[in-house]
Amino acid sequence: MVLSNVAIKKAIKDGLIVIQPEPRLDESVLDTTALNLRLGNVVSVPKEGLCISFDLRQGTIVRTLAQLYEQRKIPEEGYTLKPQNFILANTMEYVALNIKEGKPCYAARVEGKSSLARCGLMVHFTAPTIHAGFSGTITLELMNLGHYPIILYREMPICQLIFEKVEGEISFKQSQFHFQRTPEGHPKL
């Protein structure tokens, strides 16, 4: 069951969904069934000239990603994402989907905004699920699939979260990305 804007407001008020900094819960942030999030202040750009292959059998990739990407602050004039280029970024907002005994529990899906998709911007590839119990910023896998450069600005609306009620009891398992604050998944920026 997807939460309505009214149900999202109630879950935030009840502390079951935490968004920091706390947004103004008006029509600029809430659609009928989604909460808009903004682009953070840094992007992580692949380092040039490295000869590597991802060995996905190695388990956690956070350390590997930190070695392969370099963080860059998004300048006031914006960061230009060229066609066919891929970067990592994260949301300005820190999101927590709290699990409290005897209370409703929520998961979310991160989705791109259609206005940006029409310019060729893909916001995530295959990882839309934000699991119940997650706390951290949301990592975005940004790719310009279009023919023209796209300028990305700090704090621009970049994606939306669609919340769903979780049915049944949860056995919580912390992921390698829990408490992430960087696009690569580190807990510290």
Describe this protein with a few key phrases.
nine-stranded antiparallel beta sheet; Deoxyuridine 5'-Triphosphate Nucleotidohydrolase, Chain A; mainly beta; two-stranded antiparallel sheet; 3 helices; 189 residues
Summarize the structure.
By secondary structure, the protein is mostly beta strands. The protein has one domain (5-165): Deoxyuridine triphosphatase (dUTPase) (Deoxyuridine 5'-Triphosphate Nucleotidohydrolase, Chain A), CATH 2.70.40.
How is this fold's topology laid out?
Layout (H helix, E strand, L loop, with lengths): L4 H9 L3 E4 L14 E12 L15 H7 E5 L5 E3 L4 E12 L8 E7 L1 H4 L3 E2 L6 E2 L4 E10 L5 E3 L4 E9 L24
Antiparallel strand pairs: 1-5, 2-3, 2-5, 2-11, 4-10, 5-9, 6-8, 6-11, 7-9
Radius of gyration over alpha carbons? 17 Å
Total separate domains: 1
Instruction: Kindly report the CATH topology.
Output: Deoxyuridine 5'-Triphosphate Nucleotidohydrolase, Chain A
CATH architecture grouping: Distorted Sandwich
The CATH superfamily appears as Deoxyuridine triphosphatase (dUTPase)
Low-confidence stretches: none
What is the SS-derived class? mainly beta
Shape summary: globular
* CATH class membership: Mainly Beta
Helix content: 10-25%
Question: What distance lies between the first and last C-alpha atoms, to the nearest angstrom?
Answer: 34 Å
Q: How would you characterize the largest beta sheet? A: 9 strands, antiparallel
Q: What's the β-strand tally?
A: 11
Proportion of residues in β-strands: 35-45%
* Mean pLDDT figure: 87
Helix/strand order: HEEHEEEEHEEEEE
Number of helical segments with 4 or more residues: 3
